[in-house]
Design brief:
By secondary structure, this protein is α/β, with parallel strands linked by helices. The protein is built from 13 helices and 11 strands. About 50% of the residues lie in helices and about 15% in strands.
């Protein structure tokens, strides 16, 4: 198994990328890494990890795509960048997947241009897991597609279902469409039409129906489907609430001597809570629908978070994710062709 790493992408690259690969190697000793980036900077970093050096190769890339580059600019001017070379390695069959902590918009634009989408998929979607009361829930799209029609939402549902079924081994995942209410008449036309299609198709999907914002944290369904506009707002809102909660908690424990003593007694429980909400454990958003496996790490993560993103790529490769996607979309195409206008109204 070979995974290409955009070694220059992210706030703390290339140090974090190399250290993250070293952490991942302990968990996945069978993986070989291709590190794309500035050879002069990568060589001493790799030499500092002899155990990683035995299963990693450096491929020099003279350019780097910055976080401020626009997607169109990166697509035109980033042909010799570490991100572009790493994606090219997947297209050419030299690597099984790419992991990057670089510019999200650039990664999506270049990956879509180089790898193309899988048959039956109009647009790729960004998917990631949210911690919930029941464990984890996958949500997509998280910002790749601001405007989506019903066909896009149905495609996202199928991709999300396949991802959860293959990677998390849930035999028949439940799917929910994010809406402003659970009633069938709520929401705009695209959401209602997508709901009608998902109720009629003959795929291993357990369609729950509409879900609301509070169902995300409740873990009501295994997969939540929405457009990129609402999905990105939900993601950033959740991140902000976690920061607010931790800030209030710290301030409360510092408010008095008794509060500080209370912290000492509850420290072990708080450590467990911190581990459960640790964003590094959920790092690694997936660009679903591309003809190749692309995983996006958070740009500001540390080596533990980046290693987790590598783990997401490893699991997708191990479970032949894209092959499962192709099979599902062949069936979806047959199902949707047989639906009449009355079926979806």
């Amino acid at each position: 198994m070979i995974i290409a790493l955009d070694a220059m992408g992210g706030d703390n690259a290339p140090d974090i990328v190399v250290r993250g690969a070293a952490v991942a190697r302990e968990r996945f000793p069978e993986v070989h890494f291709l590190l794309f980036g500035d050879e002069a900077r990568l060589t001493p970093l790799l030499d500092a990890h002899p155990e990683l050096s035995s299963c990693a190769s450096i491929r020099h890339a003279p350019d780097t795509i910055s976080s401020s580059d626009k997607p169109s600019q990166a697509l035109r001017g980033g042909r010799k960048s570490s991100m572009r070379f790493a994606i090219n390695a997947v297209r050419e069959g030299e690597a099984d997947a790419i992991v990057s902590a670089g510019n999200t918009g650039a990664l999506m634009a270049i990956a879509k241009f180089v790898l193309k989408t899988l048959p039956g998929i109009d647009r790729p979607a960004i998917a990631s897991f949210f911690p919930t009361m029941r464990g984890e829930t996958l949500m997509l799209d998280l910002g790749a597609n601001i405007d989506c029609d019903s066909d896009n939402l149905v495609q996202f549902a199928v991709m999300g279902e396949v991802f959860v079924r293959t990677v998390q081994a849930i035999e028949k995942p439940s799917i929910g469409l994010l809406n402003v209410g659970s009633e069938e008449l709520k929401g705009h036309d695209s959401v209602r039409r997508a709901s009608a299609i998902l109720r009629k198709i003959h795929l291993p999907i357990r369609f729950h129906g509409f879900v609301e914002g509070d169902d995300i944290a409740a873990g009501t369904v295994d997969v939540i489907v929405t457009d990129g506009f609402s999905g990105n707002i939900a993601l950033k809102t959740a991140e902000g609430v976690v920061k607010l909660f931790t800030t209030y908690l710290k301030e409360t424990y510092k408010s008095s001597i008794l509060a500080k003593l209370g912290y000492l007694f509850s420290r072990s429980a708080l450590n467990r809570l911190r581990e459960r909400l640790d964003p590094r454990a959920y790092n690694g958003a997936v660009l679903l629908g591309l003809n190749g496996i692309v995983v996006k790490s958070h740009g500001g993560t540390d080596e533990i978070g980046f290693a987790h993103a590598i783990g997401v790529a490893h699991d997708m490769i191990s479970n032949s994710f894209n092959e499962s996607i192709k099979a599902e979309f062949e069936q979806l195409s047959l199902d949707t062709e047989s639906l009449t206008q009355e079926d979806i109204l």
